[in-house]
Design goal:
Elements: H1 6-18, H2 28-35, E1 47-50, E2 58-63, E3 69-73, E4 77-81, E5 88-92, E6 106-111, E7 120-129, E8 132-143, E9 146-155, E10 170-172, E11 178-181, E12 207-211, E13 232-235, E14 240-245, E15 252-256, E16 263-268, E17 310-312, E18 319-324, E19 337-341, E20 346-352, E21 358-363, H3 365-368, E22 374-379, E23 385-389, E24 393-398
Antiparallel strand pairs: 1-24, 2-3, 3-4, 4-5, 6-7, 7-8, 8-9, 10-11, 11-12, 12-13, 14-15, 15-16, 16-17, 18-19, 19-20, 20-21, 22-23, 23-24
Length: about 400
């Protein structure tokens, strides 16, 4: 549903809130099951090499032009890792203070599209303030091993108590504006879904925003009404920790955490509502797994909300990190998605057709065998895939 039709949406919310009992299970359940049954043959030639660098709870990864890696660490440090991944070379000073409680900390990192001529580095992180904590976006120029001219560009509002669901990923578009993904900060529950938090456009909880790289609001964003937080692109998200642009477009794709089951892959379109917490294929944590009878709204999103492209159930994989492959090492994988998994301790390959429908979904055996919680996934300048694991390692996926 397009939120330009905002009044019609609110007229239907009461019905969605009441629809928490059993409902007809849509075809997405069978779709997810079918695509979970891959044999791994297409990814069987890949092997995983654990590199030598030892990190502390790494979260985000960006490659510098010379091949070295910038890596965020949850407790609030930014480090430079050698291009061969063998060791940490330096710690970068000047990083903003972070709130590392719970799931907070120093989160994503990315480079400005014009980094070669003006070396801005962008960071998302959890920030303390009046009322609690929220996600923030800052940037600084990388000068040697320090960030200079550090400026906070954007802050999630309101700040709230609790340590859950900060998101967050930063993705630049071709026009040099950026998407920032934001979690619901744990304010919404599948046990008692309401429209008070993620569904409220006046609060930047559970949203995607589109910003200019100086933090101002670009032209062309969708309208969400006069009370909306500036910059909104989409709403109804729970906790997006994977985000990537489809090659050749500005189309944002994301993976987001469900509650008990119901993790989602979504194509994020402007002005759309992705349902949380009024519709979800996940269930309250008091349940052992996701089943139709305990899903908010019965699970079904359409026609009121956008249906996910695929979901993971009956249990969650906790997806984190997402990349579209565009390299030469695996020509057969070009245009396909690779999604990390925390609880699932794996890497998923996801193929799409021209219309964005999922045609293949399978785990990569070499990564699954490691048993590591995969936090981020990036394509390196050498065409291999690089993964960050929660136990402090960098994994290179190669032939």
């Amino acid at each position: 549903m397009n939120l330009l039709q905002h009044g019609a949406a609110w007229a239907l919310l009461a019905a969605a809130l009441a629809a928490c009992g059993p409902a007809a299970t849509p075809s997405i359940d069978a779709h997810a099951a079918a695509h979970s049954a891959g044999t791994g043959a297409a990814t069987g030639s890949a092997r995983a090499s654990v590199l030598g660098a030892t990190l502390s709870r790494p979260w985000g990864l960006a490659f510098l032009p010379d091949g070295r890696m910038l890596v965020t660490q949850k407790e609030g440090t930014l480090v430079i890792v050698r291009a061969d991944g063998s060791a940490v070379e330096a710690q970068v000073s000047g990083v903003p203070a972070v709130d590392s409680g719970g799931q907070g900390g120093l989160l994503d990192v990315t480079l400005d599209p014009d980094f070669a001529s003006d070396p801005w580095v962008y960071l998302s992180y959890a920030e303390s303030g009046d009322g609690g904590a929220g996600t923030a976006l800052a940037r600084g120029r990388l000068v040697g091993n320090a960030l200079a001219d550090v400026t906070v560009l954007w802050r999630q509002q309101p700040k709230v108590r609790g340590g859950n669901h900060f998101g967050s990923r930063i993705v630049f578009r071709a026009d040099k504006t950026l998407y920032l993904t934001l979690g619901d900060r744990g304010q919404d529950s599948p046990s008692s879904p309401s429209a008070a938090h993620t569904q409220d456009p006046a609060r930047s909880l559970g949203k995607v925003v589109r910003l200019n790289r100086d933090g101002s609001i670009p032209a062309g964003n969708p309208a969400f009404g006069t009370t909306a937080v500036p910059g909104l692109w989409s709403t109804g998200h729970r906790n997006i920790q994977g985000a990537a642009l489809r090659p050749g477009s500005d189309e944002l794709w994301v993976t987001e955490h469900g509650p008990r089951g119901g993790d989602e892959l979504n194509r994020v379109l402007p002005g759309r509502n992705y349902g949380w917490p009024l519709a979800s294929y996940g269930c309250p944590y008091s349940r052992s797994q996701s089943e139709p009878g305990c899903r908010p709204g019965g699970g079904t999103h359409a026609p009121m909300f956008e249906e996910p492209k695929t979901t993971w159930q009956p249990t969650s994989i906790a997806p984190s990190g997402l990349v579209f492959y565009s390299g030469d090492r695996w020509p057969e994988w070009r245009g396909q998605l690779f999604a990390g998994a925390l609880a699932g301790a794996s890497l998923w390959r996801i193929a799409l057709d021209a219309n964005g429908a999922v045609t293949v979904r399978e785990e990569v055996p070499a990564v699954k065998a490691l048993g590591k919680r995969i936090r981020d996934v990036e394509q390196g300048p050498d065409g291999w895939l690089y993964l960050l694991s929660d136990d402090g390692k960098i994994v290179r996926l190669e032939r």
